[in-house]
């Protein structure tokens, strides 16, 4: 299995570093490339996988991470993506516990450290794959390709395609998978330490390797592909017990696949046409052509990682519909290159070249297999994160190519050195620029417009980011463009409808939301928003039907019950309104608006005793909610419980001192109570904060007249 030092290795224009120095150099490069993402925000998929994922919170049972998918949904749910990555979620939970909440710095720092560690371990992996497995007298691995393995590891550490996996927190799945992938492979190689192995120790090392493979798979599904890399190594190990090892590894791999199949619910996740349009094409020829074009795009991202985008779906990559499409040339070119490499790997008279090309191709292709649409449909067109492991194979092949060129063209050594330095500098600069773009959603989404201007999801995300920052006017423009590019984009229609509703453009909002639920009838949020618009248009029957449709598709929907209660209140159906709001608070005990509306409705209908009970019940759950304190204080004032009412008013004002309405109603309480000077003080504070406060000016004038009368009648 061992080889002599590669004939091209010493021609590579790198200094010959010791093992420790080489690893430090690679770690420094990895840190240099991505360090500026350490203080970034949670962006894009981080919102669902981390910010909104209840499995991260200490209050959620730890056992939930073994029952739920990566996004916190139950694996048995129809909406689950079936991405079972409990070990990755566990690290998110640890980040949450250590930081005491959702502070992104800790999440980002761990990602950067993981990438640096993986890059360092790549030296050992590349050394074995290129130069073979050999040990010295002390049992240490001998590196027969020190410069080639170092150069390949530096390429890996600095490759810009890794930015999504490192700078995006959800890329933790790819990082952990790669780490356990490496540990599994290196542990497997430990079993064959010449002169020290026995049947028992070999068996133990192989079992440990399989356990690490399972850990890789529990971080991300493609972790199981390390077994194929091990199988490819078996041909290099001409020792006894080969069949036993092969059988053990096969049994372990099949067991893992079966367990994963059972966990997934024996069925693949359901994706839509917008996620992967080629997979929904009727004709197999069109599907195959487009799949191969996707492979070309992935290859191009490895070769020229300049045009990078957080999402490549929804029209970003138009489908190839016929053989006359000029893009077919790229397919032919890709396969010509691959066939050429495979033929060299199989037929070259140079054994060192055969070995290097074979393992480079295996490491390039095999980790990519789960994402290639051959075995099952995937939920994306192109995803830079799935290239994290495959890029190691590319970096190995690139380092070999440069070393071979240096060997062949010795007289151009200086030129080769300059080109290598320029390539590494471009990688580092591109990584720094791209990781800076991943620091915030605003920069990430805006940059994507120049890469994928036809991608409706990019326009949608730019619009959503603008709306979240309060710039709804600009958001409308991007939402409209998203709907134009993809006329059935229900989420864009829903969000645009919501903004138009707030701008009182109710007719257009109703049209958009009606189309959204027609395209996707189980879109509960769109049904609820349609009901809100119809209620504003006083189409009460249609609004009620829309709300009940929303509840049919999402039974536990507290916001919908709240809005249904508002509809009933507008129709003076008080009992129905109270029941709807009570349902909202049962589903979401901290639903402040539902509690407050119950208190106000009971107050307005004269049910002061019941209003008091509801208000007190609400404050047990929401002890610092100033709106409920305000409403309860009004009720207690009407019940002539002046002292207690005053206490709640003052507590509410301590929480929100500039609430004009609260000052005004406290003034009314003092007015009734006979504390006229205090009433005067709070009337004036209320009018100072809001000169147009309804009724306050009249009450204040009435108080002043009364004070004047008392002043004149005094002896």
Automatic annotation (TrEMBL):
Bilayer topology term: Multi-pass membrane protein
Alphabetical list of SUPFAM superfamilies matching this protein: TPR-like
Location of the protein in the cell: Endoplasmic reticulum; Membrane
Keywords annotated in UniProt: Endoplasmic reticulum, Membrane, Repeat, TPR repeat, Transferase, Transmembrane, Transmembrane helix
Source species of the chain: Xiphophorus couchianus
Gene Ontology CC: one annotated term: membrane
Broad class of the protein's primary localization: endoplasmic reticulum
Parts of the chain that traverse the membrane: none
DUF1736 domain ranges (all copies): 267-339
E.C. designation(s): 2.4.1.109
EC category: transferase
Pathway(s) of this molecule: Protein modification; protein glycosylation
Protein name listed in UniProt: dolichyl-phosphate-mannose--protein mannosyltransferase
An individual GO BP term: endoplasmic reticulum unfolded protein response
Domain of life: Eukaryota
Pfam family, any one: TPR_16
The organism's taxonomic lineage, starting at the top: Eukaryota, Metazoa, Chordata, Craniata, Vertebrata
Family: Belongs to the TMTC family.
């Amino acid at each position: 299995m061992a080889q002599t030092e590669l004939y091209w290795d010493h021609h590579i224009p790198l200094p010959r570093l010791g093992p420790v120095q080489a690893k430090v150099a690679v770690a420094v490069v990895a840190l240099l490339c991505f360090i500026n993402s350490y203080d970034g925000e949670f962006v894009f998929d981080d919102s669902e996988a981390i910010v909104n994922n209840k499995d991260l919170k200490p209050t959620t049972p730890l056992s939930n991470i073994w029952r739920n998918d990566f996004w916190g949904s139950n694996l048995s749910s129809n909406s689950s993506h079936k991405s079972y990555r409990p070990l990755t979620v566990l690290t998110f939970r640890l980040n949450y516990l250590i930081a005491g909440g959702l502070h992104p710095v800790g999440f980002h720092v761990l990602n950067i450290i993981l990438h640096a560690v993986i890059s360092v371990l790549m030296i050992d992996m590349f050394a074995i794959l290129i130069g073979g497995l050999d040990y010295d007298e002390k049992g240490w691995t001998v590196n027969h390709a020190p410069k080639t393995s170092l150069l390949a590891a530096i390429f890996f550490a600095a490759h810009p395609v890794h930015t999504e996996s490192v700078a995006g927190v959800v890329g933790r799945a790819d990082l952990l998978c790669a780490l356990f992938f490496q540990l599994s492979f290196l542990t497997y190689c430990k079993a064959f330490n010449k002169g020290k192995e026995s049947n028992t120790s070999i068996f133990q090392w192989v079992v440990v390797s399989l356990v690490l493979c399972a850990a890789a798979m529990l971080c991300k599904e493609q972790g199981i592909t390390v077994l194929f890399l091990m199988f490819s190594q078996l041909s290099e190990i001409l020792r006894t017990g080969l069949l036993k090892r092969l059988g053990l590894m096969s049994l372990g791999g099949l067991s893992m696949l079966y367990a994963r199949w059972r966990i997934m619910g024996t069925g693949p996740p359901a994706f839509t046409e917008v996620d992967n349009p080629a997979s929904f094409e009727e004709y197999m020829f069109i599907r195959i052509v487009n799949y191969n074009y996707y492979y070309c795009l992935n290859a191009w991202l490895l070769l020229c990682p300049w045009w990078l985008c957080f999402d490549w779906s929804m029209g970003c990559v138009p489908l190839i519909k016929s053989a006359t499409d000029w893009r077919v040339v790229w397919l032919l070119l890709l396969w010509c290159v691959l066939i050429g490499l495979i033929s060299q790997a199989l037929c070259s008279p140079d054994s060192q070249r055969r070995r290097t090309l074979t393992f480079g191709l295996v490491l390039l292709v095999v980790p990519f297999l789960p994402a290639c649409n051959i075995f099952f449909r995937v939920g994306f067109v192109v995803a830079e994160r799935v290239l994290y492991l495959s890029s190691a194979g590319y970096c190995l092949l690139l380092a070999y190519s440069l070393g071979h060129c240096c060997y062949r063209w010795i007289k151009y050594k200086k030129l080769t050195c300059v080109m290598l330095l320029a390539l590494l500098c471009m990688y580092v600069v591109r990584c720094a620029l791209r990781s800076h773009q991943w620091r915030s959603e605003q920069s990430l989404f805006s940059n994507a417009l120049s890469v994928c201007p036809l991608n409706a999801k990019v326009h949608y995300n730019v619009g959503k980011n603008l709306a979240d920052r309060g710039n709804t006017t600009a958001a409308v423009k991007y939402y409209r463009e998203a709907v134009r590019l993809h006329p059935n984009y229900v989420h864009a229609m829903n969000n645009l409808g919501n903004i138009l509703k707030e701008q009182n453009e109710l007719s257009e909002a109703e049209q958009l939301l009606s189309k959204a639920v027609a395209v996707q009838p189980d879109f509960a949020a769109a049904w609820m928003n349609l009901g809100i618009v119809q209620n504003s248009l006083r189409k009460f029957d249609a609004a009620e039907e829309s709300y009940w449709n929303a509840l049919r598709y999402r039974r536990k929907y507290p916001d919908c019950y709240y809005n249904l209660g508002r509809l009933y209140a507008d129709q003076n159906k008080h009992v129905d309104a109270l029941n709807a709001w009570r349902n909202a608070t049962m589903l979401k005990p901290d639903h402040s608006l539902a509690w407050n509306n119950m208190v106000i409705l009971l107050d307005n209908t004269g049910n002061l005793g019941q209003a008091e009970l509801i208000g007190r019940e609400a404050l047990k759950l929401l002890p610092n909610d100033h709106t409920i304190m305000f409403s309860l204080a009004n009720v207690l004032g009407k019940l002539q419980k002046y002292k207690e009412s005053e206490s709640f008013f003052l507590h509410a004002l301590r929480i929100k001192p500039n609430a004009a309405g609260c000052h005004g109603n406290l003034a009314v309480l003092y007015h009734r109570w006979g504390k006229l000077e205090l009433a005067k003080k709070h009337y004036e504070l209320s009018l100072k904060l809001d000169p147009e406060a309804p009724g306050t000016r009249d009450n204040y004038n009435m108080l002043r007249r009364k004070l004047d009368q008392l002043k004149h009648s005094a002896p």
